[in-house]
Each structure stands twice: as C-alpha cells, then as structure tokens.
C-alpha cells in the first residue's frame, strides 16, 4: 500500500509528523514549511530574482555539501521505495510483469528482478 508514513520532505529532509504535514505525489513529498518558503519566493519579485539561477550548493561550503549528502540519499531511497510501492500496487491490480517491463522500457525479467519483493510476489507470469 502506498503511504506517507515514515516519509521525509524531499526538499528539506525533515521527517513528516503530526506537526509537520507532508503533501506530495509521484514520490516527492514536501512539507508545509517548504511550501510556505517557496510561496514567499514566488510572490516576491526581489526574492525571486535572488533565487533565479542560483543553486543551493553554489553558496555552500564543502562541509555543508557533505552534511547534505545523507539527506540527498534519504530522498533517493524514499523515491526508490515509492517505485516499489507503485509496482506492488500494479501487481495487486493484476498488471503483468511484461506490461510493467514494457512501460519501463525493460524486459519482464528485468522488471521482476528489480521490483519483486523477497518473500512477496515471485510470480514471473501474468
């Protein structure tokens, strides 16, 4: 089942909680704080001009970039887990491994090898 439980904000890395609501779809999750921050930038011409063309890592020290790497990996792992949940959802709907593979541009076997859960859906047919 696809769930937001245990997810983190894909932008700031904060875990969702009762106090920090996450909103999202297609793997990315965003907290209300990041939405508010983004809204402030989008609706303030000066802040928008300041942010335009600037990437966070351009002003970060090496130590800050290194410290951010675990958040980047957590977000990537979250998206990988979401892809697995999505494939599980498709399999529950009796979508074949062949169709999943075709959609991903890989063979049925490659899709199965990547997404079949150990102890879960091991069927190679359907």
Tell how many strands the DSSP assignment holds: 2
Low-confidence runs of at least 5 consecutive residues: none
What general form does the structure show?
Answer: elongated
Distance between the termini: 20 Å
Q: List the secondary-structure elements in sequence, H or E.
A: EEHHHHH
Number of discrete helical segments: 5
Itemize the secondary structure elements and their pairings.
Blueprint: E1 22-25, E2 28-31, H1 32-42, H2 45-51, H3 62-92, H4 97-104, H5 108-115
Antiparallel strand pairs: 1-2
Helix pairs in contact: 4-5
Give a quick set of tags describing it.
126 residues, mainly alpha, 2 domains, two-stranded antiparallel sheet, 52% helix, Znf_CLPX-like
Description:
- The protein is mainly alpha-helical and 126 residues long.
- The chain has 2 domains: 1-53, no CATH class; 55-119, no CATH class.
- It is built from 5 helices and 2 strands, in the order E-E-H-H-H-H-H.
- Strands 1-2 form a two-stranded antiparallel ribbon.
- It is elongated, with a radius of gyration of 19 Å.
- The relative contact order is 0.11.
- The model has no long low-confidence stretch (mean pLDDT 85).
- Keywords: Chaperone, Metal-binding, Zinc.
- One of its GO terms (biological process) is protein folding.
